[in-house]
Amino acid sequence: MNNVRLFSGWAIPAAGIILLCLGGMFAGAEDNAANDDDPFREIREQMVERHLAQAGGWGRDAIEDENVLNAIRTVKRHEFVPEQYRRQAYLDQPLPIGHGQTISQPFIVAYMTELLELEEDDVVFEVGAGSGYHAAVIAEIVDRVYTVEIVEPLAESSAERLERLGYDNVTVSHADGYHGWEEHAPFDAIVVTAAASHIPPPLVEQLKPEGRMIIPVGPPMQIQNLMLVEKDEEGRVSQRNVMPVRFVPLTRKDEE
């Protein structure tokens, strides 16, 4: 990708930072809130159609996996951001969620999820629950999601939020994700939502044969590489760089 400007959980061309012009629609959605348990449904659908389901003017491919698109359509992103950012919840951009962390841009969430090639009976491990949004998206597609979050207040709030929203197939733990979650391994897929300096060997070990892992790798707050790691049926591991990105760094217990 050429001419790329990169943000936390974001990858877009510098020449076209285009936000959805939906201010009036957000106001209308809020006006209808009393009559609709999901007042942002239409806005969310437009975000999917304009920024995910078709190739963008930013040199990005369209998201083609209908299961992924339907998951993004279904998950109420406004529930996963702080109250002061709800009006921005369906802009295709990352947003702060506190404690120096962000909720990733919807396109990046969709793209990373699509690369995992998920099946409905899969068991997925996520490193970096954050507010719980990416886990909820994956949970719409697969049988079970195990996710860990090293920031304790975020782990607690994401667990409460996911339970409140009915995601009973997601289990959240306050833990260091570098070492995986051996109790529930091996996993059909692994997604890491913060940038590591290298691909953690324990995560590769806990990936099933024919499994996939997506992980940003690179130095903190600089250009990183979104890496796709694949394990074949014989257990051989390959990796390739799929996109330049910029994520918050993967935090370790000894770094807290």
Structure overview:
- This protein has helices at residues 23-31, 41-51, 66-74, 106-115, 133-139, 152-164, 201-205; strands at residues 4-7, 10-13, 95-98, 101-103, 123-127, 144-149, 170-174, 187-192, 207-217, 224-231, 237-245.
- With 256 residues, it is α/β, with parallel strands linked by helices.
- Strands 7-6-5-8-9-10-11 form a 7-stranded mixed sheet. Strands 1-2 form a two-stranded antiparallel sheet. Strands 3-4 form a two-stranded antiparallel sheet.
- Helix 2 packs antiparallel against helix 3 (66-74).
- It is globular and about 45 Å long.
Question: What is the strand content?
Answer: 25-35%
Give me the number of helical elements.
7
CATH architecture title: 3-Layer(aba) Sandwich
Q: Uncertain segments of ≥5 residues (pLDDT<50)?
A: 1-8, 12-35
Percent helix:
25-40%
Describe, in short, the structure shown:
With 256 residues, the chain is α/β, with parallel strands linked by helices. It has helices spanning 23-31, 41-51, 66-74, 106-115, 133-139, 152-164, 201-205; strands at residues 4-7, 10-13, 95-98, 101-103, 123-127, 144-149, 170-174, 187-192, 207-217, 224-231, 237-245.
What is the fold's blueprint, element by element?
Elements: E1 4-7, E2 10-13, H1 23-31, H2 41-51, H3 66-74, E3 95-98, E4 101-103, H4 106-115, E5 123-127, H5 133-139, E6 144-149, H6 152-164, E7 170-174, E8 187-192, H7 201-205, E9 207-217, E10 224-231, E11 237-245
Parallel strand pairs: 5-6, 5-8, 6-7, 8-9
Antiparallel strand pairs: 1-2, 3-4, 9-10, 10-11
